Amino acid sequence: MRMRAVAALGFALAAAPGLSGAARAAEARFVGPKKCQACHFAEHKSWSATRMARALDLLKPGAAAEAKTKAGLDPARNYTAEPGCLACHATGAGRPGGFASASETPDLGGVGCEACHGAGSEYLKDGKMTLANRSYKRTDLIAAGLLRQDRETCAALCHNEKSPTHRPFDFETGVKTQVHALAPLKFPHE
Ligand code: HEC
Ligand code: HEC
Ligand code: HEC
Fold first, then answer.
1. What pLDDT shows up at residue 27?
2. Which CATH number belongs to the domain containing residue 158 in this structure?
3. Does residue 138 contact residue 129 with C-beta atoms inside 8 Å?
4. What was the pLDDT predicted at 47?
């Protein structure tokens, strides 16, 4: 039953624009942000303090009441278990290794590393993104499910009119102020 839902989602993702590698990403399992933290401590720390990391909280009754009313949502309702909201307010909702519920998978509430970068199980394998292979070829990782980090991907995944509170978003500013601290990559990946 779960497998069928996953297959359907893989299909939907593969059909979305700007998501090359997404069909394979749908086969990959979510590993959770602690795995990423081991090698990307600074990104993890700064991300933890963002609104993105806490995006699940916006679905709680009473949270962002004004914005909800304006968008025609019910501020008193608990939206934290609604798949139609969790698709963008949690990480990998309903997918293998992804968000199940706030109590079962507390690390996967909100917009986590893999919501933006893709489920990690395949691109973290030997010969891909590892300490022994710091000069990985980016195209190999994308084939294994790493998503491109650009405006088109963000728009296809979440920043679009399926969001009840959608407003035009400025990728360049958002990346600098709302995601995590950024450091130039040290190794060649072309
Ligand atoms: C075993 C260590 C390790 C783990 C675990 C790890 N990474 Fe990486 N990651 C690296 C290395 C090494 C690089 C390349 C760094 C460089 O060039 O300076 C990298 C690069 C990246 C990049 C840049 C991709 C690009 O465009 O080339 C992203 C995004 C990234 N990691 C995300 C993640 C995420 C998300 C996770 C968890 C799912 C994760 N990493 C887990 C070691 C790791
Ligand atoms: C397609 C992705 C998507 C879906 C589906 C989605 N959201 Fe969001 N939501 C976003 C994004 C992106 C933002 C932040 C920027 C914006 O408002 O567009 C956001 C922001 C919010 C905010 C804060 C708005 C503010 O101005 O403070 C609330 C509240 C919210 N969402 C509630 C919900 C609820 C409730 C649902 C389900 C009925 C839902 N969202 C479904 C993407 C989504
Ligand atoms: C909301 C989306 C989003 C989330 C969540 C996110 N990232 Fe990123 N990340 C990006 C974007 C966009 C870039 C590319 C920025 C650029 O091109 O300048 C990036 C770049 C990176 C890079 C390469 C640049 C650098 O700073 O080293 C790494 C590594 C990385 N992210 C790791 C992570 C990890 C680990 C997490 C979770 C703790 C995470 N990201 C969460 C969107 C996100």
1. 76
2. 1.10.1130.10
3. no
4. 98
Phi, psi of 90 (to 5 degrees): -140, 175
Averaged in consecutive runs of 10 residues, what is the pLDDT profile of the chain (190 residues)? Answer: 42 43 69 98 98 97 98 98 98 96 97 98 97 98 96 96 94 94 96
Number of DSSP helices (H) and strands (E) in the chain, helices first? 10, 0
Report how far ligand 1's centroid is from the alpha carbon of 129 (Å): 6
Q: Is the CB of residue 30 less than 8 Å from the CB of residue 91?
A: yes
Ligand nearest to the backbone CA of 29:
1
Q: What atom of ligand 2 comes closest to residue 59's alpha carbon?
A: 35
In a domain, 186, yes or no: no
Number of domains into which the chain is organized: 1
Q: What length is written for the chain?
A: 190
Residue 190 lies in a domain: no
Task: Give the pLDDT of residue 10.
Answer: 41
- Does the C-beta of 134 come closer than 6 Å to ligand 1? yes
Pocket of ligand 2 (CB under 6 A): 58-59, 64, 67-68, 73, 79, 82, 84-85, 87-89, 158-160, 162-167
As given in the structure block, the two tokens for residue 138 are 């980016």
| Residue 64 confidence (pLDDT) | 98
Whether residue 91 lies inside any domain: the answer is yes
CB distance 124 to ligand 1 below 6 Å: yes
Q: For the full predicted model, state whether its pTM sits above 0.90.
A: yes
